[in-house]
Amino acid sequence: MWGAGALVAVSVTPANGTTLSSNTTPVVITFSEPIDPSTVGNILVRDESLGYYEIAGSWSVSGAVATFTPLSPYPANHVIQVWTQDLVRDFAGNTDTAYIVTTFTAANSADTTSPTVTSVTPANNATGVGDVPPIVLTFSKSMNQTTLNTNSIAVFARRQPVHLQPVVPNKRQIRGSQSEYDVAAEHPYHVSASAAAQDLSGNALYRSRARSPLAPLFRRKLKAPG
Length: 226
Fold this sequence. Notes:
The protein is mostly beta strands. It folds into two domains: 97 residues, Immunoglobulin-like (Sandwich), CATH 2.60.40.1220; 103 residues, Immunoglobulin-like, CATH 2.60.40. Helix content is 0%, strand content 35%. The strands form four sheets. The protein has a five-stranded mixed sheet, with no helix packed on it. A four-stranded antiparallel sheet has the order 1-2-6-5, with no helix packed on it. A hairpin with a 5-residue loop joins strand 3 and strand 4.
């Protein structure tokens, strides 16, 4: 009967200590019983060779089998860690108490594709965004978080830089801290992302011109008098 005992991860591929032949190889984890798909995102796939930064990708679940497909190739020769933690649950709420940690090594095949910015929030030409809207940039690949900072990301109002403290909530995004700036009424704001931002393979962000504005991003709605 499912849910009668502790949930256990019984196998992981690539196997522990494996060196890959393809850097787009999915990670497949088989558990002792079907798992709750809403908890699969708690499994960590991380770049052990570069600060344990998480690898961007997508999870799918079929019964007791969870499959991770990387968004982009693993960085060449990097050691990738898979950690099931103890936060995956079956449908009875049992957790993966016997969690496992395995590693494999990416193939010696360089990823030379530059990352791009795939979306920006607030949306281009948005209005009425409020006093301190969070600014979120999403990238096409897993990013080196040490390169996502004020040297690579900037916000301008009327060509003047706006003080912004970037934070990186996950492997593909950077968010401007809401507490660090106040949007002046009716001012247009621009976001700039430069080639100083890099992915985990060291590829610079693709820009036709370094630090050129992405777009006139947003305006705050003018407050009514009183």
